[in-house]
Amino acid sequence: MTETTTTKRPVLSVENLTTSFKTRDGWKAVIRNISLHVDAGETVAIVGESGSGKSVTALSTMRLLPAGRSRTEGRILLDGRDLLAASEAEMRKVRGGSIGMIFQEPMTSLNPVFTIGNQIAEALVLHRGLSWSEAETETVRLMERVRIPAAKARLHEYPHKFSGGMRQRVMIAMALACRPKLLIADEPTTALDVTIQAEILHLLRELQREENMGVLFITHDMGVVAEIADRTVVMFRGDMIETGKTDEIFATPKAIYTKSLLASIPRLGTMGAAAAPKRFPEVDASTGIAVDGREMNPVALSVEPILKVDNLAVRFDLPNGRVHAVEDVSFDLRPGETLSLVGESGCGKSTTGRAIIRLLNPSAGSIVIGGQDVTKAGTRELRTMRRTSQMIFQDPFASLNPRITVGSAIAEPILAHGLMGRKDAKARVSELLEQVGLSAAMADRHPHEFSGGQRQRISIARALALDPKFIVADEAVSALDVSVKAQVSNLLLDLQEKRGLAYLFISHDMAVVERMSHRVAVMFLGEIVEIGPRAAIFDNPQHAYTQRLISAVPIPDPSRRGQTPPPLSEEIKSPVRPFDYVVPKRTYREVSPGHFVQDAH
Amino acid sequence: MTTMASLSMPFASGLRRLFGNRAMLFGAIILVIVVAAALLAPWVAPYAPNKLSIINKLKPPSITNFFGTDEFGRDIFSRAIFAGRISLLVSLGVVFISTVLGVILGVAAGFFRRLDAPISRLLDAMMSFPDILLAIALVAALGPSLTTVILALGITYAPRLARIVRGSTLVLRELPYIEAAVAMGLPTWQILARHVLLNLASPILVQATFVFASAMLAEASLSFLGVGVSTDMPTWGTMLASGREYMNNAPWLMVFPGLAIVFSVLSLQLLGDGLRDLVDPRLAKES
Amino acid sequence: MARIAQALLKRLGGMAIVLALVVTVVFIIVRVTPGDPAAVMLGSDATPADIAQLREKMGLDAPLLMQYGQFVLGILQGDLGQSIFLNQPVTTALAARAEPTFFLTLFSILIAVGIALPVGILSAVKRGTIFDQIVVTLTMVAASVPSFWLGLILIQVFAVGQGWFPASGYGGPETPFFERLHHLVLPAVALGVVNSALITRFTRAAMLDVLGDDYVRTARAKGAGEGRVILKHALKNAMIPIITVIGLSVAMLVAGAVVTETVFGLPGVGNLVVSAVLRRDYPVIQGALLVVAAIYVLINFIVDMLYILVDPRVRL
């Protein structure tokens, strides 16, 4: 937004900023010689992977790092005044006064034992000298300004009654209470669902325009950068790698790191004419050059499904009502096919997966695996069933027992089911480790000796140990860094082709889903609102929610900026209903062969 | 990265951290001395614990009697060493009983949803009794003896361990690797043994250290009150109880056995604290 | 207010269940005695006739379930049985000895909390400084000292040595109230100091935990001064676990009081229990256990209620 740049002197100018932390081995620099500036009305993004030092840069600027254990050198000029030379009392006026800040975790950033109103008003009382009662009127105004519905009524509520998106709005209201010249936003949308993220970004842009304030935006997401930043600073392991206008960085990245970063991010709309899934591009880290992956095999439609789910429902009772976590969900899955379940947190996609694996008991409906009804299977039948179906989990750090060697973990199911003797099992473990791209010699190591991506490969090897027919992959690649994400996804695709595996791929990441799936089912509030072939869902979405979900995904291309959906500013409805609630029967229409959309209700 | 190197050698880094934590090292050294003295009592103690010498009664500490002598002229230093045997034996027995009971109850309550409410309520009820009072009542009911003191204190401290184990099990149960074990069709006993108990070992060890310390204090209290082990069996508590009568004229009778308790308990607390920091890095910031 | 009333009812229900279990546990404890309790109580000189008489008096001849029924019925009517040796109702015996125990517990909890809260908070705020290290060391040592031993030393120094306080006893009803309380100074200090160690360590840990939380960073980013950050934002959150540990330490104080009363010759409930154990006066042991546990359950209930006031997230 260059048209709003009115002043010459930058609001914030950081010169040669170096921050060190005290460690056992003495002072260690975590960021080195960072220089950047933010003009009024301008958004500057700092982008980098975990460990790049981008958050430390933000906290150093606010002087929020612990005094004894950290040291900051260089200059931080706010309107020409050096903050590193300011006294602590002066800094208190700056924090929340001239610089507002919002953080990544809206769920933990608000104090749970004080009301929302109290926490916003505190900033006004501290900086503008208002009395608490005067501050209340202003607080309501601020809450309305960040589009919190029924602001007056919610003033006296506690944070735990607010959703993540609403809490982030409260944080923004608090940060903007004293009309700061600069807003520092540290990954403000990372913990939020994609549609909520779009709303928050929209709100931030609007408020920035109204206030002509500078924004320093820290993120790991290139899509978000393309969406909002005028200029971008790329960081890697504490160093500034590249800086420049966002358009230029995206169009002609200079540093190899930036090139490979841009090449490895999954993007929407790169499937071309492919009908089946496509491997992710392979990026050469030394040159940053990417080669697009090949298309995988299509699925034979004539084969009998390995999994049939009919009218599945999972409900939990709470003291104040019943959660309809999953309601009337039906689909089938053929050998060699990937069906993705997509939707935002709380939509019931994980619950569906866990019910199919029978980690939860379904409340209604039926699950048929390989022609056998396992909905009500007892302990003995379950044991047999567990050889056909397996699950891979999201968190690579909690998926493996830290006290058992990975070889032993992979051999465990083989031995428990009595499929082989110890000796054969050992050979099988070596084979499996090699199949997932690790070496057989790693079998004797413990999980903590592996990286996140390697652990996820081990989890896959363990899931394959029983030679299952289908695998439920619950956000299996979501926690991985961008480049690793592509590699593990490619592994899953290769294994599928080789073994004819079927995947139920549960994910919130639309760009990954587009690459991985044959078919896609969109879930909202426990129900499937749309299901069909991948191309049909992404290129021709019919349900209003599917359209919102797809258009909310930030596109890593600054030239397509601003195509996000209009803000909704409503709390997502909750799946908690009164006990006497009768589930209405939903109807679907077939738009094209195999593409079903739930009728409006 | 440096952390990767240290992580790949858990034992070596554990040792390094043990020596890095001076408080814990201090605790470990005291405990080793106390345990060694107790084990080697007949060789370490300069006199037999019950050797009477009326001429030498109530002598203050000296070169011949480091801690002085009691009303029968018995050497306090030797008696304190032998008393350590009983005190340690009782505490060890208590730790064993309470750990076995606590782990069974805690894992059952934490892992099996149906058992949680009844077991938890029972633990609530048991923990409503102040520890010494419950132990006294149990000893009174069972009749005082070494075994009953161990049994009574073991029952008294079992709920504490059970609470901790239950809490940890509840957290573990939700972890993906336990769910993966269920999804792989492992039998329940195998999930409990290999995945739950193996990962509970550290919190149990830490808590057992604290129970050890509490048991030592409680045993001393019981003996001091005369409701614990028989008074002719020297423990630090019984030594304090019998020394009390003479404390105006011969304060060493109560000072040294008391210090023996303080140092032993302190060593266990230091050790427990250090272990907890090693096991749970999140809590390490406490010290 | 409706929220609190509703929560109150729910917690009362839970409390009733625990109390019922407490009654049952007490009943069982006294009946696990190997052999005949009546014979044990009367000692080896007793004639079979004496034993039979006592058995009847204690209702030991009835079937176990009947005994349990009578036990519960008695409790509901406020009857905890009859002390054989004191020859008076257990409730009377307990009531007569409640005062010193009550004040001893009260004073020691005041001393413990009075030391622990400020020291613990300061130690957390000044974490890593010499002050903090001294606090950590002292609390560690204090938690290792048996309170009765500290009592013995205090008697040596301040009663026998300096003569500032009486070494033992409490004085009868005719003694002026403040003089009676004067007797409680040393025992309360002995108990309070030892227990303050636990609460101090806990307060420090809770504060450190809270000071690392995201909302504390938010408060700082808002420009709040350290005083406000610590006393408003951190402390109210830290109080949630601290309240629990204070509630818990009341039970520990009662346990400590049993021994401390013996050391200082205070005629309190602890003293009564110890002599009852030595005489195998089962009804008294049973009654004292029951009353003390009931008080503990009540304190827990109060702690639960305090939670609701402090923590708006408590599920009701």
TrEMBL record, chain A:
Its main location: membrane. GO terms for biological process: peptide transport; transmembrane transport. It comes from the Bacteria. Residues 12-262, 307-550 form the ABC transporter domain. It is a peripheral membrane protein. PROSITE patterns: ABC_TRANSPORTER_1 (PS00211), ABC_TRANSPORTER_2 (PS50893). The keyword RNA-binding does not apply. One of its GO terms (cellular component) is plasma membrane. It is found in: Cell inner membrane. InterPro entries: AAA+_ATPase, ABC_Ni/Peptide_Import, ABC_transporter-like_ATP-bd, ABC_transporter-like_CS, Oligopep_ABC_C, P-loop_NTPase. Keywords: ATP-binding, Cell membrane, Membrane, Nucleotide-binding, Transport. GO terms for molecular function: ATP binding; ATP hydrolysis activity. SUPFAM superfamilies: P-loop containing nucleoside triphosphate hydrolases. PANTHER family: DIPEPTIDE TRANSPORT ATP-BINDING PROTEIN DPPD, OLIGOPEPTIDE TRANSPORT ATP-BINDING PROTEIN APPD. Belongs to the ABC transporter superfamily. This is ABC transporter ATP-binding protein. It comes from Aliirhizobium smilacinae.
UniProtKB/TrEMBL annotation, chain B:
Gene3D superfamilies: MetI-like. The keyword Cell membrane applies. InterPro entries: BP-dependent_transpt_permease, MetI-like, MetI-like_sf, OppC_N. Keywords: Cell membrane, Membrane, Transmembrane, Transmembrane helix, Transport. SUPFAM superfamilies: MetI-like. Its main location: membrane. It is a multi-pass membrane protein. It comes from the Bacteria. One of its GO terms (biological process) is transmembrane transport. Belongs to the binding-protein-dependent transport system permease family. This is ABC transporter permease.
UniProtKB/TrEMBL annotation, chain C:
It comes from the Bacteria. The keyword Membrane applies. Pfam families: BPD_transp_1, BPD_transp_1_N. It is found in: Cell membrane. GO terms for biological process: transmembrane transport. Its main location: membrane. It is a multi-pass membrane protein. GO terms for cellular component: plasma membrane. The keyword Ubl conjugation does not apply. Gene3D superfamilies: MetI-like (1.10.3720.10). Residues 98-307 form the ABC transmembrane type-1 domain. Keywords: Cell membrane, Membrane, Transmembrane, Transmembrane helix, Transport. The chain crosses the membrane at residues 12-32, 102-122, 134-161, 181-199, 238-264, 284-310. Belongs to the binding-protein-dependent transport system permease family. PANTHER family: DIPEPTIDE TRANSPORT SYSTEM PERMEASE PROTEIN DPPB-RELATED. This is ABC transporter permease. It comes from Aliirhizobium smilacinae.
